[in-house]
Amino acid sequence: MSRVCFLLKVREDRIEEYRARHADVWPEMRAALSAAGWHNYSLFLREDGLLVGYLETDDFAAAQEAMAATEVNARWQAEMGEFFESLDGARPDEAMKPLPEVFHLP
After folding, report:
1. From the candidates 22, 30, 39, 75, which is the catalytic residue?
2. Of 28, 52, 74, 106, which cross-links 44 as Cys (Cβ 3.0–4.6 Å)?
3. What are the structural domains of the chain?
4. pLDDT at res. 77
5. Which long-range contacts link 70-75 to residues 24+ away (Cβ below 8 Å)?
6. pLDDT for the residue numbered 71
7. InterPro entries in the record, alphabetically (predicted)?
8. What is the band of 27 on the pLDDT scale with cuts at 50, 70, 90?
9. If you average pLDDT over every residue of the chain, what do you get?
10. Is there a catalytic annotation at residue 104?
């Protein structure tokens, strides 16, 4: 199992709405994430919009690919894209670039 951490930037004027949307993630989106191999998935949001994501998975590329193949993910990403800065035309799930791990205390 590998640990994956990534950063994105939520637009400051959309932070409260972003929080509200994640307080009630669609059940079918939650199920799709689990089925695609996203485990122990968390999002942390700083008041300036810095979003830190963390998940555990056997294969991040395969987990991303499995989610990209789902209809629910296409709907979710279409709705979430407007919340982020600097996506350069990518969907939010395509803009997640894992950070290299430099320390871990098991």
Report:
1. 22
2. 52
3. 2-95 (3.30.70.100)
4. 94
5. 70/32, 70/36, 72/26, 72/28, 72/29, 72/32, 73/29, 73/32
6. 97
7. Dimeric_a/b-barrel (IPR011008), Rham/fucose_mutarotase (IPR008000)
8. very high
9. 95
10. no
